[in-house]
Every structure is written in structure tokens, then in C-alpha cells.
Amino acid sequence: MHQTAPPSTATTTSISAHRPHRLGLRIVATVLLCTLLFAVVVSSIQIYNAYQNALDETRLRAQDIERNYLPLLAAAMWSVDEPRITALVKGIAELPDVGEVLLEDDVGNRWAKRHSDFDTPLETLRLAISYEDNGETFLLGQLQVSLMNNRIISELRRTAQSIAITTLSSLLLSALFVLFIIHLWVSRHLEKMAAYAQQLDLNNLEAPLKLTRVAPHQPDELETLVEAINQMRLRIRDDLENRNRLMAELQLHRNKLEELVAERTQALEEKTIALEDKTKVLEQQSAELLEQNYELDAYAHTVAHDLKQPLTNMAASAAMLSAVSIGINLSDEKKRQLLLGLQRSAQKMQSIIDALLLLASLRKTDQINLQPLDIQAIAIEACNRLEPLIEKNRGQISIAHDWPKALGQAQWVEEIWVNYLSNALKYGGTAPQVQLGATRLNNGMVKCWVKDFGPGLSDLEQQQLFDLFVQFEHKSADGHGLGLSIVKRIARALNGDVGYEKTGDGGSLFWFSLQGVE
Question: Which of 157, 163, 166 lies closest to 54 in space, CA to CA?
Fold first, then answer.
């Protein structure tokens, strides 16, 4: 028998705080619940079978009544023997499991008998009463018998109570015995192992764990666990010795490593800063390159589509005029129309080329010299440039009186006014009414605007309004999609912005902003 010194007082108090034996209780409770479940299932099956057998016996009452009482009732009713009929009805009612008896003859007379405990019928029997005389059958009435299950339920309750008491008593005694065995063979040794583990100290790893019990002939699970704990103790002791040795060696290299890390970190930070600067430059160049590629694609789109139509018209007009030299006669009016067509096509091409050149010059300009501008005078000059378009569309332009000063480039700002005004005259409705003005904002910017009373733009059109080469399907299609994109680039180059608003009176307001002059 192995013996060890008892644990310290503090350890004993800590272990006893975990009582009662929770592991044993859980095992016993689990076994008890499983056994109880099985017992309930088996008992339920037994009670159910007993109930079915009792039901079968109850239903045999119908056969007894039909075989023994029905002929007697038929004879009594044929002879109109009321005392005998009453006695037979009472006899049927006193049979076991009969709750109610109702007899009714063919002339409406009724005999009824009801059990005092009858409530809900288990089954109702309806039997016709007939009498045979001289080979002829006479229907005398009908017997109705209601069966009840009061006796069956009462007996089943007594049986269930008996089974429950016996089962629970057996399970309780078994649980107590199992709990005692678990405590004797397992729990007390586990408590000792826990006490040993609690008092185990990294500075005291020499005392092994031993259990106070008779050693088994063959090592069991507890012996295996004790051996594992002792081996772990030895490994921890050896690991601590190795760790102390390694910590001493590590301390020797720590200072040198910190110096090396500091040097490498400083060098890495310098390289990182340089790399971030290069990355920012590359990202900016990449963004500029993407924008330039997009604009180059847009230029190709314009040359391929917008210049194609005026060139085709010019070629067709030239071919028609050249046909005169080979003998085809054209009227003077036709020749004049062809020449006018050549002139319009040339002007169209010139307008597209000027817009492309202005857009390219904006992209190449890095430093812009902003000057104070009289934006009202520039707006008036833009109106003068568009005088033919104003007359063609019968437009009316009204200009506000008070105009604040702003910074910018006169030529570029005039292009913005021309673009906004031409759009308002084209899409502002029949005989368009156009208003021009400028307002100083609270942030110091000057908001210049062109208002018309046309149908306005949809949400999708507003999102694409200032993109390159975007045209909307309105009544006029003589544009080339560069105007508002140029307006946006000019405003951004002048440190301003552009936008569109729907007014409360149903019109449209196009605006651009410039830096104000104090």
C-alpha cells in the first residue's frame, strides 16, 4: 500500500469546496435518467397493452348483450311485458362497463337507465330488436347501449402507481449504491490528484504523486493517469532547466540584436519613405496616363464619327458640282444649295476642330495666370457671338444688373458662356427665354448661371451631363458632345466647378463657379 503525506490545510480547504462529488453525481444522474427513460418506455408499453386488452374485454359486452339479452327483450316486447322489459334494461345497465341503456319500441315508448359515473361514451351500440312469428319477422324497436371506460382507467391508474413506486425505489437505491462505488473507487483519488496539482510548484518538482489504495494486479486508468502526471512533472523540471539555460544565452544576444534591429529599422523606414514617394508619383502618372488614353480614344471617336458626316456631305456636294463639267445641268438654286452645304460642313468641321484644340490646350496647361474679370461684359460678348443662333430660334435673353468680380481667363470663360447659351437656345423650348446672372457665395466663390425654361434633364442624363462626347436625344442633334466636357475642364482649371439644377418653376439652371475678387 502506497502512502503519502496529507496535503496542506490551504489545499484541503480548496478541494473540499468542490464537494459534493459533482462528477459522480453527474454520472449517477445520467445513468438514472437513462434507466428511468427506459423504464417509462417499457411501463408505457405494458400499460398500453393492458388498456387495449381491457378495451377488447369491454367490447365483448356487446356480444353478450346481443346473444343473451336481445332475444329476451324481443320476447318481452312481443308480449308487452313491461315489468320484464324494465328488469332486462336494468340488468343490462348493471353489467360492467355499461354507462347508459336506452330502449325505444315501435310506438315511441322509452326505457332508460344511466350509470351514476357515466360521462363520455367509449363506444355506442345500436341494436335492432325483432321478433319472428310463423316465419314472419317483426321490428319491435331499437336498443342503444353506451359503454364507458371508467373502470379501465381506474385500474390502469392503480397499476401505473404501483409500477412507478417500484421503479423509482429501485432506481434510487441503485443510484445511491453507484454513487458510493464511484466515490470509493474514483472520486476520492481524483480529489487527491487535484490537491497534488494545486500544491505543485515550479520550485518544488521532486515529490512524486502516489495514491492511497491497494495496488491493482493490472494497471487501471487511475494508475495510468498517475504515471502520466509524474512523467509530466519530470518533463516540466527538465524543461525549466533548459529554459533557464537558454534564457541566459538569449540575454547575451539580446542587446546586440536590439542594436541590429534599430539599424535595420531606420534603414527600412528610409527606404519605405522613398518607396512611398515613388509610389505616389507612379500612381499620379498612371492616373494621368489613363486620362490621356481616354481622351485619345475620345479624339479618335470624334474624328471617326463627328468629322465623317461633314466630310461625306462635302464630298457629295463636290461630286454634284463636278458633274456640271461632264454635261449634267444643275439649276442655279441647286448650285447655291450645294455651296451653302459645303460652307455649313466646313463650319461644322471648324467648330469640332476648335473644340478639340481648346480641350488639348487645357490638358497641356500647367500654370494658369488668373486675372480679375468683368464676367458681365464677357457674357454680353458671348451673346453677340451667338446672335445668328438667337435670331434663328427667336430667343430672348435677359441679363442681370449686379455682377460680382471674379478671377479667371477671359477667353476660357467666354467659351463657357457660349456653350451654356447655345445649349439653352437649342433645348430651351420654342422661342426660348434665357436668363444670365452671377451670385457671390458665402465661401467666396462666384456662381455664374444660365437659366432656361425647357423640359429639363432626367436623372440619368444629369449623371452623364459633363462627360466627354455625350449627346442626348433632343430636338437638335447638330452638336458633337464636346461642349460641356470642355466647360467642366475649363472650370476645374480655373479652380472652380460646374453643375446642373432643376428650378422650382420647371426650368433648368446650368452654373459654373470662379474664385471671387475681394
Answer: 157
